[in-house]
Amino acid sequence: MTGNSNNTDSRDIKVDIHYLTRVEGHGNIVVDVKEGKLTRCEFQVIESPRFFESMLVDRCIWEAQHLTSRICGICACAHSLASIKAAEDALGIKPSEEVISLRKLLLHTEMMDSHILHVYFLVVPDLLGVKSVMQLIKTHKPLVEMALRMKRMSDYAGEVLAGRHIHPISYVIGGLTQMPSKKGLEKLYKLMLEARRDGDETVKIIKALKFPEFNRPTQYMSLTSEEEYAFYDGDLIINGGRRTKIRDYKKLLTEKVLDYSTAKISTIDNKPYTVGAISRFNNNYDKLNKKAKEVAKELGLKPPCHNPYLNTAIQLVEWVHCLEESIKMMEKILKNGLKEEKIVVASWPKRSQINTLKFMPDTGTGCVEAPRGSLFHQYSIDDTAHITAADCVIPTNQNIGNLEEDMRKIVPELLGTHTQEQITLDLEMLARAYDPCISCATHVLDVKFVNA
Amino acid sequence: MKKRSKPKVAFFDFTDCEGCQLQITNMGDTLLELTELFDIVNFREIMSEKSDDYDIAVVEGSISTDNDIKRIKGIRERAKILVAFGSCATIAGVNGIKNRAPLELARQRVYGDKADTVNTIKAMPLDEVVKVDYYILNCPPYVPEIIAVFKSILIGKPYPLPNYAVCVECKMNENVCRYEKDEECMGPVTRAGCNSWCINNGNRCYACRGLVENPAADGAKDIFLKYGFKAEDILKHFTLYNDPQGEKKYDREFK
Q1: Which residues of B touch A447 (CB under 8 A)?
Q2: Where are the domains of chain B?
Q3: ipTM, 2 decimals?
Q4: Is A75 marked within a binding site?
Q5: Does residue A17 belong to any structural domain of this protein?
Q6: What is this structure's pTM?
Q7: Chain B from 122 to 141: CB within 8 A of any A CB
Q8: A79-130 per-position pLDDT tens digit
Q9: Which CATH number fits domain B8-155: 1.10.287.70, 3.40.50.1010, 2.70.70.10, 3.40.50.700?
Q10: How many beta-carbon pairs below 8 A join chains A and B?
Q11: Which residues contact residue A323 at a Cβ distance below 8 angstroms, ignoring those fewer than 6 apart?
Q12: Based on the number of CB atoms within 10 Å of its own CB, is B157 exposed (0-12), middle (13-18) or buried (19 or more)?
């Protein structure tokens, strides 16, 4: 600590948060203020790099889903689905409608899982003025039990649909390796109906909490679709206007390597942009279901929302949307049943054929909305279906530039009225509001920048 | 009798996806029961509190930078018991794939002309750097095994890892053998203990638990022969999770 820290209008402030807690992965926040002027403002990702894109090279494309789901424990299903879509695009495989709706269901339940983890485990402790959910076990046990119950419901969904939620087993290229069990689906449906009450309770809790005031309009990017509130498919859209096809994402986004971070950052038109719940909400509000819109109203949220701290509240709106949509999907499944012949496939081509099959060398792109925003996988394959190049663009990489821009605006606003400790907490809360997934951000880096 | 104080547990993560810690948050009520038996003093993913005073360190992730080596040695010094948690920590897991290409190439591929700014060394399981007391295998860890290991720690007994192949559990679960379905499967050489999780769900075994100590190479070769393929066909799948073990032992046994 430097400067006059006992003085609220200190001219020199140094914030150095080493290993930011309650986020997924390892990051530091460094802010330097000298004589009242902001001289340095960085969100440093210090996660050890894992080189996934390099690891994918030379591997068989049927391994890609298994491997890339290991990029992230929280959004393993989103990684799996982006990977499967990219592989199917490269191989020219089209899954059945039944398979696509089961994928959408899995993605909805992962959205709920991740959002509830973020709301209760990572953000609510700040708003209640405690250090972690562990302290709440003593003081707010029913609340913790409710959070765990909500978490358990969506985790159980992964178990029923895909064998498990973290690193799903049965979702593969072309379909599922196994039918979800009827008994499991029935239990899941029951848990979902029960979760409505916990959802209502959570809305009350979030409504009573006070989020910091801060506004900075930016570029909001997400998928969009005429048919639904887009998570699984659609076109890319920015601020409700400009549209881009998924396969042209590289024309839209520019990535660069920073010398203080092991994560790359992305820009659009040389300007930062943001992805995630707030962007989806701003672009696709009209497509939210009735219950979700009611909750948005209850929480005083309407598009366009320019306060990044409210991302957490919007996640709750999405949680409600996903629950209601999942209940609808489950009712359809339980009423009509699932047709095994349209769903079940082998995880790989036959062993006796795989070495003799010839494929068309091609490049495939897959994009889904992960809980934290648009997630891209792109693979090029050769005629033996082995990967020759891979590119993955992760939501957090797309958000880091925007987070830093927010920090650059917020620090001068707080100087003079806030102590160094308050500024530090506000910046931590801001970073957490983005729900950064730093593991993802570094675990996948880019292969396309090989200087061949 | 005087009530003993609860052992202090600290969770740490190195190079990995943090899915292991998340498995803990997915334990629901069992997590609450766990907090009655142990004091969780460090869990960065969900806690801001930090403490250097702990009895048990549960560590996930591989060692893959110079700083990682320093950090894990510090943790080892402070902890009475060190638990390697998950595939990355126990066998280097998928991180080991990185070791197959020259590090320089991996850096180039990912960071281009900024390659020099990135520190990376070969990905290693924890026990290549420090002594490990308990192993919780699997990617992600299998909850019944997490509970079994914690029980062993509480009563101060070692936790013996099964030393037979996944096939044993798979047969008990009455799955159709993947080889009968003209698919490859790592079950015959992989250490059991996951209750053949992936095969029960229609997929194949990818060997995320590491390999049995004695793979009965001759017997396995007979099986391979029966289904018409060579040991090399299965050796190439070792590289997904088992780079260190594969090179040390299995190449010799099977080639």
Answers
A1: 109-110
A2: 8-155, 166-254
A3: 0.91
A4: yes
A5: no
A6: 0.91
A7: 139-140
A8: 999 999 999 999 999 999 999 999 999 999 999 999 998 888 878 887 888 8
A9: 3.40.50.700
A10: 204
A11: A112, A192, A195, A196, A199
A12: exposed
